[in-house]
Amino acid sequence: MSVKLRIFSAMQQIAEEQKVTLPPLRDDLALQDTGFDSLAFAILVARLEDDLGIDPFTIAEDAAFPSTVGEFIRAYENVPA
Amino acid sequence: MSQPDVLALREYLGPELKGRTISDARHVISLTDILGYSCLIGRYRELSGRSVLLATSGQLQSALAMIELDGVARRMLLCPPDLDPDHIEGLLADAEIDAIVTDRPLHRWDDGAYLVVGAGLPERPGAGWKTERATEWLMLTSGTSGPPKIVGHTLDGLAGAIIADGAARYQNATWATFYDIRRYGGLQIFLRAVIGGGSMVLSEPKEATVDHVARLRAGGVTHISGTPSHWRKLLMSSAVADFSPRYVRLSGEIADQAVLDGLARAFPHASIGHAYASTEAGVGFAVNDGREGFPADLIGQNRDGVEMKVVDGSLRIRSHRTARSYVGTGAPQLTDAEGFVDTGDLVELRDERYYFVGRRTGIINIGGLKVHPEEVETVINRHESVRMSRARSRRSPITGAIVVADIVLADGTEAGRHETIRTEILSRCNDALAAYKVPAVIRFVERLDLTAAGKLTRADA
Predict the structure, then answer these.
(1) Beta-carbon pairs below 8 A across chains A and B
(2) Residue A48 sits in a domain of what CATH number?
(3) Residues of B with CB below 8 A from A47's CB?
(4) Do B366 and A65 touch (CB under 8 A)?
(5) Which of A38, A58, A65 lies nearest to residue B367, judging by beta carbons?
(6) In a domain, B319, yes or no
(7) Domains in chain A: how many in total?
(8) Any B CB within 8 A of A47 CB
(9) CB-CB under 8 Å, A46 with B440
(10) CB contact under 8 A, B398 and A41
């Protein structure tokens, strides 16, 4: 499964647990329009770290948190696992 | 110097009660005629009035030395087996130790500065000690960070709950504990055995559960105590089926309903009680109604000389059973201005009952919101496939921290069911807890480690 699909799958799982209705996931979807709050993103980042072995937001201390789904995915794709 | 009003342990040991013993895995020692023998070797007659470090490798030698030296020594500092050697020097100074009782080679301390006395089995004629004074009992706190604090007790205070319970009702009891008797929880059981006229089976470090239970059965153990974590571990073992104590006691950690119910199922003929006690606050109370938490009317009253109040959510206790003070230079105050010990254990009132929610120092901070790991574990432990769990903090670049959980499942749980169980646990947590308290990640683990004091290992404990 590609990184992108794994991220989408984790997001759907969390949306189900948190009773959040996710809009269709596209690269240009703003993260704030996903319906996820900061807790949901914290869960997502933790689970992706376990799944993919990386947490790009802790590694790069000064990295700005992405603002779209596409940027979020690229943060994972750009880090050598 | 004679103080006839001071009772020492020897006053509870006499030839009247036959068949009393104390045993570990290697030795069974008769308590009935123990006063006729000495376990001390060398210049032991000089120990009168000394401040003595009891540093023996096993619990049995410490038990025998306590019996011999209580009422004789000025102080006894009980040295638990897991003490960091780097801390010993500071402790010796703070406790003004001038004598060491040990069964170990002591090259480091055998330089004349201390009277060093050997400890063995009671094989030599008794020293004929008389009770001369109220010996101070010094114990160490069990926190994992930094040097332990020295806590000063008297036998009178240590035995307060035992006397209040009516020691004589335990005359035929054989006690056991998963604790080491050089820790507060274990010492309580040792004292119950000695003062109550009973016998005792000591625990052994690293002994397999099945071997330990075999010794408990062979020794005829009727009364036994441990932390909820000790009991969860025992309940995981098939050995539990062969064991049938009359009294099961929990203390040292929060006893949740799941572990109380599990013990009630495993030991249908036992009475099951959970006690609140700590090295500093002493024994507060015991609850015997089979329910977690404690009745609200215990707060604000004086029961058996124990008064409790709740300040900022934290339980405070004032009684004769609390420690006298911390010992050493620069030691902090043990009590507040009114003589109450702040336990740091946080409680919550719901429907006329107080429930323990966790330690003040163990709080996980999720973006400014507080979570007690214990409240998360309580929900997880209700799942029928769960044997033990630990909630803990994991750093998060987004909220600072998140809650994650490590879970031990029942033996024989098929790997294929893990995902279903994970979903069920998450769903129950979602129903019972605020969203930020629900574990973000659940990990199934083979086992969870306990500290030397029998508590679940917590990074921040």
Answers:
(1) 43
(2) 1.10.1200
(3) 440-441
(4) no
(5) A38
(6) yes
(7) 1
(8) yes
(9) yes
(10) yes
The ipTM is 0.90
CB atoms within 10 A of CB B325: 17
B243: β partners: none
The Cβ-side half-sphere exposure at B310, using a 13 Å CA radius, reads 14
Residues β-bridged to residue B286 = B275
Which CATH number is B251's domain given?
A: 3.40.50.12780
Specify if B374 maps to a domain: yes
Q: Do residues B282 and B376 share a domain?
A: no
Instruction: Give yes or no: residues B214 and B89 share one domain.
Output: yes
Backbone angles phi, psi at B211, to 5 degrees: -70, -40
**How is residue B259 written in tokens?**
């572990």
Residue B3 lies in a domain: no
**Are B399 and A39 inside 8 Å of each other by CB?**
yes
Whether B430 and B304 share a structural domain: no
B350, B371, B396: which is the final residue of a domain?
Answer: B350
Residue span of the structural domain in which A57 resides: 3-77
For B429, nearest residue in chain A (alpha carbons): A17
Picking from B394, B399, B433 by the largest number of A CB atoms within 10 A of its own CB, the best residue to mutate is B399
Strand B21-23 and strand B199-201: the pairing is parallel
Does the pLDDT value for residue A61 go beyond 80?
A: no
- CATH code at B397? 3.30.300.30
Q: State the residue for tokens 């055998």.
A: B110
Averages of pLDDT over runs of 10 residues in chain B (461 residues) are 74 90 97 94 95 96 97 96 86 95 78 90 92 96 80 95 83 94 96 96 93 96 96 90 94 95 96 95 95 95 91 95 92 92 95 94 89 95 96 92 96 91 95 95 94 82 37
Tell the residue number behind the tokens 């309903």, with chain if given: B257
Q: Do B396 and A46 touch (CB under 8 A)?
A: yes
Given a contact cutoff of 8 angstroms between Cβ atoms, the answer to whether B22 and B174 are in contact is no
Domain that holds residue B39: 9-350
